[in-house]
Amino acid sequence: MATPEEIVRFDDVEPPPGASPWVDGAGPGRDVVVVEPDPAWTEQAARLVDTVGAALGRTAVSVEHVGSTSVPGLAAKPLLDLLLVVPDPDDEDAYVPALESQGFRLVVREPWWQGHRLLRHHDPRTNLHVFHADGAEVARMRMFRDWLRTHPDDRDLYEKVSTYVQSVNPALADRVQFYDGDSEPLPLFERHHVHEQLRKAVDRKVWLPSGGSLIIEHTEALTVIDVNTGKNVGRSSLEETVFRNNLEAAEEIARQLRLRDIGGIIVIDFVDMDERQNRDAVAKTLRDALARDKTRTQVFDISDLGLVEMTRKRIGEGLLESFSSLCEDCDGRGVSLDQDLLVAGGRA
């Protein structure tokens, strides 16, 4: 039986080197969009459950309807999910031939992931997942279905999130998972260190892997990023140390611009480099890293003073602006004036 810790841990299990989960040239099916709930799903799934149970007899420990289509009233992809638990998924001779005689086809073999096998049926479109009884995924599927059936508010929220993700990036729709806050030992954000990462994302100082750092400052007209070597003392010449530090900074700056959604005019003050080829290499690294950014950017060459001027299209409110408000004491200047001294007006 899976432990609570195993059930709430979602690890992406990679196949062994050189191994493929697909069987006999099978591959991902065509994309399916989320549609309004169809009462026929329950009836279709019930018939298939009976068919699988009758074909396997005692070989089937359990067969049940799971997934989004098993929750009445929930919008979902028109693709039935069935869960088949068998004593040993690796013993395919015990269940695959019988299922193939009923129109199923084995398309996925993943013994490294809780013994998982996947068989497809095309009328109606169905994914039949095969696991052993102790797999954590078996418990997850049942918890997901049972909770959403009995908690309409959470069901509505899950539907909204799934529909949104489907419209923005359909490839990620299947990654939306239900989180049961009542049974979990830690809040979701705490478990995944979201609060910690958010605080780092709005901090003015960003540490680099080798000990250097970035200082990110916002002004009315532009954003300034200062690159420092800090604790990075290097092992060779000063020029080489500075060059390696700037390469790290270029990669991290591109990431921070995306993460913080910084737009407008941006000036980057890299640590001075004497050799022109090093300055060109840092500029190329920055451009290559920014190429992954979907927001349009324009980067100019590094000047002799180590400055890079660039622009990034401002689409909306940045991360810092979303999580902050203007300081009432200093009005955003970052300093508080000595009012007593000002009022004194120079009088002795």
* Number of contiguous helices: 11
Strand content: 15-25%
Listing every helix as H and every strand as E from the N terminus to the C terminus, the arrangement reads HHEEHEEEHHHHEEEHEHEEHH
Helix content: 25-40%
Radius of gyration: 28 Å
Query: Main β-sheet, in a few words?
Result: 6 strands, mixed
Q: Tell me the total number of β-strands.
A: 11
Q: Strand sequence of the main sheet, in spatial order? A: 6-7-8-9-11-10
Note poorly predicted spans: none
Overall pLDDT, averaged? 87
CA-CA gap between termini: 82 Å
Shape: elongated
Structural class: alpha+beta
Quick overview:
The chain has 348 residues and is α+β, with helices and mostly antiparallel strands. It is built from eleven helices and eleven strands.
Structure commentary:
The protein has 348 residues and is an alpha+beta fold. It contains eleven helices and eleven strands. Helices cover 34% and strands 18% of the residues. Strands 6-7-8-9-11-10 form a six-stranded mixed β-sheet, covered by helices on one side. A five-stranded mixed β-sheet has the order 1-2-5-4-3, sandwiched between helices. The longest helix is centred in the last third of the chain and has 23 residues.
Task: Summarize the SSE layout with pairings.
Blueprint: H1 4-8, H2 40-56, E1 62-66, E2 80-85, H3 96-100, E3 105-110, E4 116-122, E5 125-131, H4 136-150, H5 152-168, H6 188-191, H7 194-202, E6 205-207, E7 213-218, E8 222-228, H8 238-260, E9 264-269, H9 276-290, E10 297-299, E11 307-312, H10 319-322, H11 339-344
Parallel strand pairs: 2-5, 8-9
Antiparallel strand pairs: 1-2, 3-4, 4-5, 6-7, 7-8, 9-11, 10-11
